[in-house]
Amino acid sequence: MSDSVKKLRRRDSNLKEWQDGLEQLLASGMEDFEEKLFSFLCDHNGLVSMDRFNNLLEETGLRGTDFRLKETMTKFRAVLERQLHNENELRGLVDKEIFLDCVSDNIVVISKALTSQFVIPEFKPFTDIIDKIFESCKENLLGLPAQYIPQLARGNPKHWGVSICTVDGQRYDLGDTNIPFCLQSVVKPLNYALTLNDLSPDVVHKYVGQEPSGRSFNELTLDYQHKPHNPMINAGAIVISSLLKKGLVIADRFDYAMDELRRLAGQEHVSFNNSVYLSERATADRNFALGYYMRENNCFPPEADLVETLEFYFQLCSIEVTAQSGAVIAATLANGGICPTTGDNVLDPQAVQNTLSLMHSCGMYDYSGQFAFKVGLPAKSGVAGGVLLVIPNVMGIFTWSPPLDQWGNSSRGVQFCEELVENFNFHNYDNLKHTNKKYDPRGRAVESKAQDVVNLLFSAYNGDVTAMRRYALLGMDMSLADYDGRTALHLGAAEGHEPIVRFLVEKCKVNAHLKDRWDFTAYDDAKRFKHDNIAEILADYMKTNPKPADGKSFSSSVQEVNTFMSKLTT
To answer: What pTM does this model have?
Structure first.
């Protein structure tokens, strides 16, 4: 076991996820993963491009700003800064010693990313579908921004953004994802979760119910027990506001809410919009009427001050996020209350469970029933155009587009959620037996030897060196052949992809003497298709690496693979 792995075990013993990752690393015989990684990434001069390494991580959904890469990125920046001040050093390139030093502190998360151990192991195919859904929804021009609050009525109807954060911290953004906007009703489940976290469900539900109201979100009505129906409508959210840190003065209560929302968002953008707050307070006749109606029915705790409670509620609705920070909040809920980008345990799992249950049944205004039917996932919308969607144990998604439909939900946001579930098996009941199978991005594409062959040869045909590196890091046999005996080296040579050929012979040391069913080697293909530079590379390699005595590759022969493929078809 290397010293770096021992150091990681000591340092991260408090994070179960990292412990599990380390155990998987050791169990798979990858103690020398740093060495393998350097070997696959370095050029013929024995140097690794920092940009290439960063791009490789980004393709898995991992960002350089991830807290789990802090030490690696800090060291890379220090190296680059030193190179900028030294004219004799090659900029952006590092040798083996420096590379191993930079990655060793964070090798567990790096290995998880590059060996497809994240919740979305094949991130690029997943995001390619997300791109198409995003563009489809962009054409939706239905609806107008909320008109009853003047500041919201000025929202730009062209704004459209989608941000994704998985429970493993994989990130993806499209469109207007860094423009601040108010949470409005999206804050309701968050306040409810924070209140549950502080008090018990028994205490909270003495004052607010758990049932869908079947009425408008701002209607003056109570349930049969003379309580607001649930925390997702205005009446229930106002009562929840009276419970949230009720023993503190209003300034401290607001600071507490802001601090906790920042923790939920992984310390990303959370702010306050005073103009929206003033605009909302000036148009709050219905909410004041709700407050007095509920006070008449003894809905509040005895010590609650009605005016102060309403002020606090308006302030909470005027808290701002971006789609990016909102996606982290959604991912924290999907992750059982632990923020995936910081590892901060913000919420109790029971509080998250109760919150998601009510979001599922009551989160989308009067469209909640249809949304639960079509999408089958917990979500919450707000009249500023935000939609917070939670896919438990997988990811959080936040969409933002100001134009609203007839129910007060973002038109584009609802369409995105519905198309998402049409493409992926994310609906709560998509995994029932005998249902139509959709694409599950949680499963590795490389799940069988036959699929290995397809993926390997397809990547070689397209010249995708990045994919080839990933397959090599996964421990795949890079000499695998199809039914005709064609290997990745054959295709790389035939298509003239020199980087593929060099990677296979220089890094993977594949057997270049293998012949296909027509008795051609990869060298023969390079000559036939007039790729003389590749033929020269292969000729030199074959001289220094003679044909194995048994005629097999280092792991399997073409005949063995063909036999295996034949069995699959019978």
So the answer is: 0.78
